[in-house]
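From the pipeline queue, job 12 of 40. The input is one protein chain; the requested action is below.

Action: predict structure.
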Amino acid sequence: MKTLLLATLLTVSFITSHSQSRRIVTIVTFGNSTTAPRSGVQKVYAQRLHEKLDSAGIENRVINSGVPSSHTGSIKDNSFAKVVHAMDRFDTAVLKYHPDWVTINFGLNDAYQDKGPNTPSRIPLKQFKKNINFFITRIQKQGGRVILLTPNPLGSRFEPYRYDRVKEYANAIRKIAKKRHLFLVDSWQLFYTYINDRHLKLDTLFTDGIHPNDEGHRLISEALFEIVNP
């Protein structure tokens, strides 16, 4: 009887362990046009992350919730781009999936100055930080884990004042990640490390001076994989 009981327990243990190892990991990539599928890019980082996890034997679904021209606020905050902005779609684009992981990648549109140098950004830095923290808190409350991404730098076609403003938003993401003990993919630093090691120009990693090309997306996906892969 003891032998039978032990065998039964071992079988149940194996089934439970096997079931847990085969659990599907759900990841939502929340962001703007640097996250969304894009013409001229074969595979954005969400697709590449899915494939990498598949290759590692990890069942997963990666939901791309990137929307071109999106900022972190609501359309009521800034309506220059007539799209569904992050705050307006957060529940339906992120929380409804009850994800295990959420990547948050915003800043380029938030920082943009429509009226030129020394003018306000579409979403002021203070509000940007408030919005990012709101997303983090809601995701964590639901049991999800957060990976923050800094916005990538701007290429040579953009004026220095725009580059400097985006850099402020990248620094804000770094500070939030540090303060809240979150995983961080520093796309800004990642891109510079890549080009400096190879003596290349920053534009090498863009399709148009702002959106990452396939190599840029590959770099981001590899950094994310190192975090998500157990």
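Job complete. The CA atoms of residues 15 and 58 lie 17 Å apart.
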